Amino acid sequence: MSRQYFIAGNWKMHKTRAEAADLAKTLVLQLKDGKHKYLVAPSFTSLETVGAIVKDTNVLLGAQDVAAEEQGAHTGEVSVLQLKDLGVQVVILGHSERRHTYKEDDALINKKVKLALKHGFEVILCVGETLEEREAGQAEVVCESQTLWGLSGVSAIDLAKVTIAYEPVWAIGTGKTASPEDAEAIHAYIRKVIARVYGEESAQKLIIQYGGSVKPDNVAQLMAKENIDGALVGGAALKSDTFVPIAQFS
Ligand code: PGA
Questions:
Q1: Where residue 208 falls among pLDDT bands split at 50, 70, 90?
Q2: Which of helix, strand or coil describes residue 74?
Q3: Range 6-247 classified under CATH 2.40.40.20
Q4: Which of 214, 238, 239 maximizes ligand 1 atoms within 8 Å of its Cβ, making it the mutation to test the pocket?
Q5: 247 Cβ below 6 A of ligand 1
Q6: Domain ranges in the chain?
Q7: How confident is the model at residue 1 (pLDDT cuts 50, 70, 90)?
Q8: Cβ neighbours of 82 (radius 10 Å)
Q9: Is 95 a catalytic residue?
Q10: In this predicted model, what pLDDT tens digit does every residue of 121-156 receive, in sequence order?
């Protein structure tokens, strides 16, 4: 089955509104004839600015996280209702920096996944093992558990709005990329887990992105693998010089 490639840029905690606007304008121009699916996820503070630039283009607007509650006394949090109001279409959840630095557990991430889907967002659910877990031979088990927990209670219909991003923690921001073969092995495994729960057809349709030091010079080899359907890009997404070649790989 041929799946559409999905290339997403996670800008993390970078860029003022003016800087974000500059990058968004360049991307919209340079990717307008691109043949893949595209997303940029700026900081909350730049969502409105970037949203106005990518509106009605082939670049989707994403948020990097969302609160697990709809609204209320949650100082410092941002709700699904507020993201919807800004025109956000996709929410990235369970990023390794949320899991490890901010101690988000699978139950919390699952709550966010369900709430985001209920409000009509697409979700990118990130999963991935640490170096310690990989060295202990636990990579598959960890990814399986994060995938199943993250999607617990998600219907087959809602699964169509979910992308899984496999991001080995040891490859994020480190310059170390998983080899295309190692990444492919985990992607194939995740697809098998999804097939077991949701059936083969849903599993074949599922987009599974790879993330972790994706660069212009390694993207094509990764994307050539059968079960790798896109990329979630951090560092290289901060400049059009590096993001555009990734987004336009062929
Ligand atoms: P990186 O980040 O491309 O800088 O490794 C990827 C990510 O965190 O999504």
A1: very high
A2: coil
A3: no
A4: 214
A5: no
A6: 6-247
A7: low
A8: 16
A9: yes
A10: 999 999 999 999 999 999 999 999 999 999 999 999
